Amino acid sequence: MKALLVDDEELQLIRLENEVKKVIPSESECFCFVNPLQALEKTANEQIDIAFLDIEMPVINGIQLAKRLKEINPKINIIFVTAYNDYALSAYNLHASGYIVKPVNEDKIIQEIENLRYPIKIKATKSLQVKCFGNFEVSAGGVPLKFQYSKSKELFAYLIDREGAAININELNAVLWEEDHKSYLRNLIADIQATLKAVDAEDVFIKRRSECFVDVDKIDCDAYEYKKGNPDAIRMYRGEYMIQYSWPIFNAK
Fold first, then answer.
1. What 8-state DSSP symbol labels residue 123?
2. How big, in percent rounded to 5, are the helix, strand and coil portions of the chain?
């Protein structure tokens, strides 16, 4: 995520930056300016996802700056940050994403980011991309993986749910079936290994003696990002977690 912060009062800008950085992902970039014209120049070379703009500024005010930013990038999210309520109608007419009345704090920023007009997708950076919210899905490079057996996918879902903890064969058997199917379980493990190897992600799944687990450091997962406080993931959660299975319980705290 790339964020643009503009406020002609330096102390207010520092406060805004501190609060924004508490909320956005750690790998995000913040570009801070007291001069709105310099901020405008910056956007010519950067694809800005979200802009926090003070309104009362010299040279050009925040409303004027927002219009010019949207000419450059029509899908930029504009959040006005102001000490006044007088500009709410102008912000609405500009189809702004949000409106924060000073003083700025973390809760106000979270509320606005959770309701962006143009949601910011979590960018895939690792071997596998796993979606737990709604139906459970696994993909590599944006292409869904196709396991030979549906139970293979459920087994992998359970390991994802356990977040890297080593799970023994007896527990896996009990989750997937009421009866003893340990011999069939070996087929599922082999299916997972073959499916991941086909997309060069075999190192995500680890089998050691009578235990299995996943390497969470090689997985982009919406549920993991949620628990890290990633606002993009928080916004994506709608109370549904691996809904095709009967056993999952997502602890959203």
1. P
2. 40, 20, 40
Structure tokens at 110: 């979270």
**Beta strands, E only, 16-152:** 29-33, 50-54, 77-82, 98-101, 128-131, 137-140, 143-144
User: Taking the chain (253 residues) in consecutive chunks of 10 residues, what is each chunk's mean pLDDT?
Assistant: 94 94 82 96 91 92 93 93 76 80 90 83 72 94 90 97 95 88 90 95 93 94 90 84 94 73
Concatenating the DSSP letter of every residue in 5-31 gives: EE-SSHHHHHHHHHHHHHHS-TT-EEE
Tokens for 204, please give them. 């995500």
CA 214, CA 77: separation in Å to the nearest integer? 36
User: What gap in Å lies between CA 86 and CA 142, rounded to an integer?
Assistant: 45
Q: How far apart are CA 229 and CA 240, in angstroms?
A: 18
C-beta separation of 58 from 144 below 8 A: no
DSSP state of 138: E
What is the Cα–Cα distance from 237 to 114, expressed in whole angstroms?
10
In whole angstroms, how far apart are CA 130 and each of 116, 181, 203, 249? 23, 27, 15, 17
Q: Which of 15, 57, 14 is nearest to 36 (CA)?
A: 57
